[in-house]
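INFO  loader      accepted 1 record
INFO  loader      residues=383
INFO  predictor   begin
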Amino acid sequence: MLKRLNICTANRLTIGLLIAAVCLVCVSIASNRPPLAPSPTHKPKPSTQRKRLTFILIATAVCLSWVFFASDSPSQARPPTYELPPATHLMTSRSIVTCPSGLPHLSWVWEFSRDGSPEDIVRVLKHHNLGVIMKTHDGTNWMATYDLSPTAVTGPEQVRLLAQHFEEQGVPFHAWALVKGVDPILEAQMAAQVLDAGARSITLDLEPSSEWPPEFWQSTPEAAVAFGQELRRLKPDAVVITAVDPRPWAIPLIPLPEFASFSNALAPMAYWAIFSDQAHLELYGLHGFPPGPDGITPEFVLDVSANVLKPYNLPIQPVGDGSSADPTAWTRFLNHASRTGMSGVSVWRQELIAPQVLALLKNKAPRIPCDAVENPSTTDPPG
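INFO  predictor   done
INFO  writer      dumping tokens
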């Protein structure tokens, strides 16, 4: 859980102390000020000293009161304010006329040692009319560094063999990688090699590192620019999607403007079941997105994602919560994504998906806005 800094409290206390200091200086000057020379026609009143003493006491009380009320306790401190789109009320979802996309939903695969062998995955996905989005590398390491399976990705040639295996069985093959930014040029070159090996698209998992040692993005916006420039130099026409944690307190911690500048779409990780605890209820509210009476629902997570990603003006392809085995929640997720014009849905991840959710995904083929079907763009992601 990200730490919430007591920025507001610190600022108020600092301002209060400064004002108190100024007040006290003024009081000191007033109390030591010599009396004015009397006018030949004016005699000083006996009450002058009493009025001056009253002024000193009132000024001191005002200063001390300001300091007292400025110093909130840590439990009352508010989290830092980020520059996000106005979000006191979620933007109203409008229904969009949709048509069949002719493309399948996608299932994420992390490691073959966890999600199953390529043969088992192909059999399940083919039966349910799903495509695959398979992890090929993590930073500058191919997945064989972590995946002990004999079919783990060792490099571009293994990616080529796996792409051929899935595509020959009628399962569209997509890839994903975790970006870290430690060596952005090498990471971009590896992504280009994956695309050259047969992946229809590559999704870049861009998440903030909140623990030590860092496991996710750990570099600068300049590194993100360098990554994008190198990737687009090598693969100018490739389909590149950036996957993000759409919680509003996570978005400011990643170089999303830089990644969005060379991406075709954004894929928010819309994990309504994982996010449905008391801590998330409070954090969403504190960051300007108070959940409704039903709590954190599939619709709520999608609407928040749409709000925080709206400034980038890119298609949204949400990643569904495979830890949820509730067909009703999944139906709501798919329907709301379709109604709001989101162009594709995937699910994290293969090992977690319940049989009833697989059946639902099979029967609810992806739909996209009809104008996108009638006027296809060469930059629209295929899945």
